[in-house]
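Propose amino acids for all 234 sites.
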């Protein structure tokens, strides 16, 4: 049996990413720049010779669009591809679609978790989730126990299915805060960090346990970008 690894990609840059709005469960398509970034990723993965046996994404349009580009550029259009709503981004409830700065620098700092001058770097993912629930007037935001369970269950189900079929690599397209949450659930000492659009985070899975291999790796995009630029010059 070969090793089981999930290559977890954050979707390409979208319209809301570009203008600094929180997407959550709302959705906007990739921009032209975002599409090109994911094309770079796909070319880079192909040139690096990374093999995939299955593909998974959330059911959001931006991850589906990202997956379509990666599968086309890597030549893996024929592999099994499933969409799973457990891989969605966090739901910001009534704050979905609002400006990031307003949410993270204006609204959340007024909640209980941010008292005594605590910042986003000081609070845990759990405290951020509890703060979003606290300020969500619609009552749609997910409580931490629901949010953390659906994220971990979603990724674990993928890992178990790949392991049960003999191991190998799965390509997974998800979202920035969802990927960050998964990393923290695997290792509580993992610091919060920005997960760049089109980056690759690799986690391995063995005997019921995840291990973090790489976080927010942009090297595949860099490989792809250089190849595309050389092609244009030729």
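Proposal:
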């Amino acid at each position: 049996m070969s090793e089981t690894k999930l290559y977890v990609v954050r979707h390409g840059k979208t319209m809301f990413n570009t203008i600094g709005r929180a997407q959550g469960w709302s959705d906007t398509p990739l921009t032209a720049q975002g599409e090109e970034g994911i094309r770079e990723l796909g070319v880079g993965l192909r040139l690096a010779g990374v093999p995939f046996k299955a593909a998974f994404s959330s059911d959001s349009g931006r991850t589906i669009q990202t997956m379509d580009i990666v599968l086309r550029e890597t030549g893996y259009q024929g592999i099994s591809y499933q969409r799973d709503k457990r891989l969605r981004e966090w739901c910001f409830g009534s704050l979905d679609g609002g400006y990031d700065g307003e949410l993270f620098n204006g609204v959340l700092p007024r909640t209980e978790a941010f008292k005594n001058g605590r910042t986003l770097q000081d609070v845990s993912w759990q405290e951020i989730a509890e703060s979003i629930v606290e300020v969500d007037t619609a009552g749609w935001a997910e409580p931490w126990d629901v949010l953390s369970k659906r994220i971990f269950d979603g990724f674990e189900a993928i890992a178990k299915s790949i392991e049960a079929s003999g191991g190998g690599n799965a390509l997974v397209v998800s979202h920035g805060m969802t990927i960050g949450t998964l990393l923290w659930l695997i290792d509580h000492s993992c610091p919060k960090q920005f997960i760049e659009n089109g980056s690759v985070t690799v986690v391995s899975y063995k005997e019921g346990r995840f291990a973090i291999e790489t976080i927010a790796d942009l090297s595949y995009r860099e490989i792809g970008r250089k190849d595309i630029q050389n092609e244009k010059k030729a």
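The radius of gyration is 18 Å. Strands lie at 4-10, 54-57, 80-83, 168-174, 200-206, 209-217.
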